[in-house]
């Protein structure tokens, strides 16, 4: 149905795609896998009409496929749903869906709004999205926005649906809903090209896999012919290493953060815990269990109704993220780097130094460029951030390098307490291992870390203690000094099972 033959794409100083050949069949879910920078996104954007290949060609239904824009791709039956859906937030659901083909009536060509809403409603129903066509998109959840985009693909009778990290920000129940819809579309003969970093999803939903590395497609095969270990080896060119990281020297006599009976209505209830110098404290629980809500209260992004926060033994008054940083040296690496953590259209240098502008400016409140460059360059080198220059815009970086910049700004500010919220979500296997080792290294150097993660293996490998969250409460605390996955996972499961009953 769709075939790439010898496709190559070049950017200044970078060969993004190198002679890629791969074929896709109708009625299948075909995964594209690879580390950040492997070429997956570039390949998707060529099919979507964002880029043109510099060499090679693409065939669609045995005919040469050449488009100059995503609109042309859509008109030919190919539609892309990106990780961050491209929408007009203040417009309605129906307007977003029908924008490219608004039905009109009468000699004056007035938009037939009744029909706009009627047609949109039909396709919203088809994907199981129970919202009114007149609802403004800004009111939709991330999952609903994804389903709206899929409904739009059906509206245009798309034969190829490209899904770029569609589950990255979705809770488990909505992932299941999306997978049911994908299976339905597959039965109707639609080709779904599925980009993800979550290998469990690949084995659950995909029929076929293409693995990219260093701009090349190194293997395409049926999923039944591949194991998880084989895929990882093909992606990163080596075996996945899950060796022990060792033991941290936690200073139990130095309590750097203490939370006492903290409550925020509908967010968290009666939470208490302690964090010691050099410790990694894990917050484990499902999305919505209260972990992130608690973190945002600690950093001053949300207020609390009762309770207290102490930093280094003294009661803290944190009314803003700036307070947390400037007065208490607390940094927060957000789970959604693209929305909350980075200025995507700004430079690497600006993103790294924004937390220290008040410290490096001169007496005239002017920031010396040489000083700013010095701070940024040090972080780029320390974190091995792959950039062409300090003035490169962050939105042009791979996901892993964006996350490094997201971390760098807090390291530049020399925070003593760091809260990592789902630090490896949406990044590849190799980059995940990098951040695991970085978090460990920072703790070994004396930083105190709160690690929020839904990845049980990750949190067991890193945390010294684990707080288990459910229903906006801490329901258990586990000593994880053994780092025994089977033992600790059973303890976590026991807490969650008891809570469920």
TrEMBL record:
One of its GO terms (cellular component) is plasma membrane. InterPro entries: AAA+_ATPase (IPR003593), ABC_carbohydrate_import_ATPase (IPR050107), ABC_transporter-like_ATP-bd (IPR003439), ABC_transporter-like_CS (IPR017871), P-loop_NTPase (IPR027417). It is found in: Cell membrane. Its main location: membrane. Keywords: ATP-binding, Cell membrane, Membrane, Nucleotide-binding, Repeat, Sugar transport, Translocase, Transport. One of its GO terms (molecular function) is ATP binding. Pfam families: ABC_tran. Residues 2-239, 248-496 form the ABC transporter domain. This is Sugar ABC transporter ATP-binding protein. It comes from Aerophobetes bacterium. The lineage of its organism: Bacteria, Candidatus Aerophobota.
